[in-house]
Amino acid sequence: NAGVTQTPKFQVLKTGQSMTLQCAQDMNHNSMYWYRQDPGMGLRLIYYSASEGTTDKGEVPNGYNVSRLNKREFSLRLESAAPSQTSVYFCASILMGPTGELFFGEGSRLTVL
Amino acid sequence: GIQVEQSPPDLILQEGANSTLRCNFSDSVNNLQWFHQNPWGQLINLFYIPSGTKQNGRLSATTVATERYSLLYISSSQTTDSGVYFCAVTTSGTYKYIFGTGTRLKVLA
To answer: What does the pLDDT look like over A43-56, one tens digit per residue?
Structure first.
């Protein structure tokens, strides 16, 4: 049982390049999330998907797009990367049922030069 | 939106000491979790505790939802407890899980 899997783990981009971070969960969870964590800082919510077919903005959505491909997969796309998007990105999922417990992937470290 | 503040921001302890970390939130919450982020960046679930008290070994947590705070207690601290502790909450009617500011803990041998 892998839990929440993120790819890639590391990526270096040049300013203006695009890329997609992939996230998949095998826990049959309803809701999925993307967070970013800048050095020495807390986690800030970028986008979330409460259920398959829906997506909503979080605290810091500018510069990002998301796709809830199916119940398992939630991708985050940077269309034109900027140095300010250098960060560690975490995907998470939740059943949002009796316990509402959030589970995280291991993170993807992105550097934009 | 809801504000989630944690205190203290930084804490240094000698091994064996006890500590209390606090999470204050500005609105009623449906869900509340405590996480430990280890020095390698991994986020580890500690407690799911929207109300009441739970214990797991040397760690325990209490949430007083009516007074809008939660406490994480660490007893007999060990160097492996070092890292950053976060609380995270959702409010009624939303699926947004918002994180607190974090407490950075360093336990010295």
So the answer is: 999 999 998 999 99
